[in-house]
Amino acid sequence: xxxxxxxxxxFEKIADRxxxxxxxxxxxxxxxxxxxNPQAPVHILVVPRxxxxxxxxxxxxxxxxxxxxxIAAKQIAQQEGLTGGYRTVFNCGEDAVQxxxxxxxxxLGGRKLTWPPG
Length: 118
Ligand code: AMP
Hints:
Bound molecules: adenosine monophosphate
CATH superfamily: HIT-like
Shape: globular
Strand content: 15-25%
Strand order of the largest sheet: 1-2-3-5-4
CATH class: Alpha Beta
Helix content: 10-25%
CATH architecture: 2-Layer Sandwich
């Protein structure tokens, strides 16, 4: 195995079908799959193919990419029948308990969500 393989993030491995996931959407820029530890009846991660570690690493050139993730999330919410609403979240860094260093937009719905989050 070359170092490129070893350096892949967990979500790149899912994108490359090296790790199984329930993929619900994909296009040239991103893919989306069900969270393995769902916090709501619908809990999907929308992940860019580009392995940006965190929101802190975003560059101006990523402006369109980030907008694309929200457009994809909106389409997936419709696909999942989330007519009552939904929440989208990026966790960034230790205080937000980001655990996977490859940005991902959480799409949560299917129940009444509380606010503020814990
Ligand atoms: P965060 O804490 O914002 O970094 O979110 C990472 C999310 O990835 C968590 O909600 C995990 O449950 C989820 N996760 C970790 N491994 C997998 C996996 N193999 N397939 C799907 N979701 C995963």
